[in-house]
Specification:
The complex is a heterodimer of chains A (about 525) and B (about 325). Chain A is built from 18 helices and 23 strands. With about 525 residues, chain A is of the alpha+beta class.
Amino acid sequence: MAYAFLARSGSLLKSATLAVALLASAAPIARAEGGETLVIARSMDINALDPARAFCDTCQIVLTALYDTLVGLAPDNKTIVPKLAASWQINADQTVFTFKLDPAATFADGSKVEAKDIKWTFERLKNIKGSPSFFMDGVTSVETPDAATVVITLAASNSEFINKLSAGFTGIINSDVAAAAGATAGADADKADKAETWFLEHSAGGGPFTLVSYRPDDELRLARNDAYWGKKPYFAETVFRQTQDAVAQAQLLQSGGADVAMQVDMDTAKSLHGNDVKTDIIPSYNFLYIALGAGAKSNKVPLTPDVRRAISLAIDYEGVIDFTVGGAGKSQPSPIPNGFPGTEGLPERGRNLAEAKVLLAKAGLADGFEIEAVYPNDNVYGVDINLMMQKVQQDLTDVGIKVTLTPATYPVWRDQINGAGIPMTAVYYAPDYYGSGQYADYFAMMPGTAWAKRAGAAREPSVINAKEAELLKKALASGGAEQEKNFHALALEMINDNIIIPLVSPNMVLAYRSDIEGVRYSACCNLPLSEISRKK
Amino acid sequence: MLRFVLRRLIATPLLLLGVATVAFFLSQMTKGDPLSAIVPERQMNNPEIVAAAKEKWGLDKSLIERYGLYIGNLVQGDLGVSFTTRRAVSADLGERLPATLELVMAAMLIATVVGITLGVLSARYRDRSVDYISRVFALLGSSLPVFWSGLLLLFLFSVQLGWVPGPGRLDARSVAPPSITGFYTVDSLLNGNIPLFFESLHHLLLPSIVLAWSVIGVITRLVRSSLLEVMGQDYVRTARAKGAGEGRVMLNHALRNALIPTLTIIGFSFAYLITGAVLTEAVFSWPGVGSYAVSSARSLDLPGIIGVTLVGSLAFLVANLLTDIAYAFANPRVKLQ
């Protein structure tokens, strides 16, 4: 609040305070110079501010503001648009990507963005073996024929590679500045790079903002990059204020202490009223799902394809959406979110108790069975996973399946899911960029994927679906309608696997003061800060 | 007394070493994946990334090796690097401890003044309306969960009435004063920024009242019962027989003696709140040690957990020592040996 209490009359305390304040020397409170401040109330999940090491939702927002990427994602959340690269060419088999840099592009210190910076950034991202290093999976070389040209070669076709380059984690670093701070891109970067702490206090990019300060669990402060080569942001300063829960975020928004809150759940959003605050309820690409561990050690019965399908048919999907987000969400048949390549026309999942019972009887489980569900005891994207699992438990009772719910802390859950496996679990996912390949790489029953392992492929090889690897390969080697067709076929296979059963894709609440404009959700970058302004 | 204090001071590092050892092995025994704070879930499948993370954070070493390294570093004042914030734990704690101390000191000041006042009033007007009201007030403070009372008071006084600012140590649009003590109230004064001093004081008001309210109940009850006990003593009767007024008897004769057990509670409440102000810090977005303890525990940030444990232990040891010294000053019959 802008110290309104000093101007109000009232209690003795306030009068006394006012008197003392007036008597005291009037040194101004330090504030951003030369413009306004945008305040975002947010529970910050930052694990690093080094683009090669960071990996979190807040990091998506911050890194996009600090570091320009080669390409961007248009507001339609589908079209790739130029950013640092003014143009690009992709060879026929989608293995060689040639980028021409925009000659006007500069870093915040005024130096030109050169091909060597792109090479250095991408090699460092790969070699540092950090959390987002997978963005460089498949890259065999980054060449710089001249200062304005970058040629990236992949080991295998990947038509979605360019989409990856719109993510903030691939933001281009000023190599000279970072190297002087101890960063290195060499093959031994995972050991030799000493810049992680430096990046918590400095930025070395050319994005619309620069990092001023970061205090974990307190605030993160960005200043407008006044030398920005693109369209300069409206706000001179952006402050992320650590605000743990949805209610506190809503209160801060209502009191005017914050301008934007993005983690307000549906119930809290209903309490936001008046002319001062606006809420946009928009579909998101985030989703929550249950996953079945066919090879989990503690399974009491084999989770065969028939049993898995019976489980999927016993769930009341509409009821889950009503129960968890009051209907403010949508169902999602495959692990690839609706709206991503290949998802148009996918058959919706639905409840069919009769068929579920037939399938269970066929599996010799007409009387049902017991199964344990272990899941992180969290509230994610406005969904209480505990509540969601209670609904699943209730639904499965109708076909005789007795689910024991075991909520666990996240580290305990991770220990179990990556160890002996879990018969049934519930998790969540948000996209890193616009593209369906990321979902196949993570969820498909292909050898080596995270969920093939967790589903117990080592103990139960039958979960592997050989068609999926082939379909992914075809999808990544093609473009346009052909790519769409292959991803569609892949999504159908993933639906039939019934290892990953999406339950709800909750709508997102964008809550902001009514004089704020330009707040939108981006599939690559979460909240593009540079587009936000205040109405004049 | 000097020998007593010196002996206790010398024993403190040894006790902390013991605490560190217990905390280290307990945290290692916890069922959970310590990599969960380091490697995001989606990358757990990548053996290269997992191996690099284990090596970097020393998780590839044996338990004994890790313990040796930790204690070796601890003796040199190095508490390790937080898995979550990626900064030195000592730097994290050094930044957060002043925030917590500022909040807790303000809360203890309020709790002590209000608690003793209510305790005296309750004893003075025993079984009368003042007694009942103060006891109900104290009981509410002890019983209401802070996350509820905090949010409610925040909604009422900040959102609805606009009397106090929202969460945080300062308005988000204000810049913190250059750090000298880490106490925003003190630092803003030292920097000659009076408006910022009032702003930080204003931000401190509601969280410290909420935190104080939870302690007021204990102090009130203790002062009341101690006073009632003391009021029946011979020396109080003697004072009355000599013609001293009831107010003087109560404040000069009875209260001084009744306060001795209260000192213990105040001392321990202070130490408890250093790491126990978790909910208040969460509700009021107060970046202190309590919120650090929660985030460290949730993400199994082992260096962070042990660091907070050491700070908490140190707070109790110091509070204990100060309480003992205060005892000796308050009651000359107590000899520190």
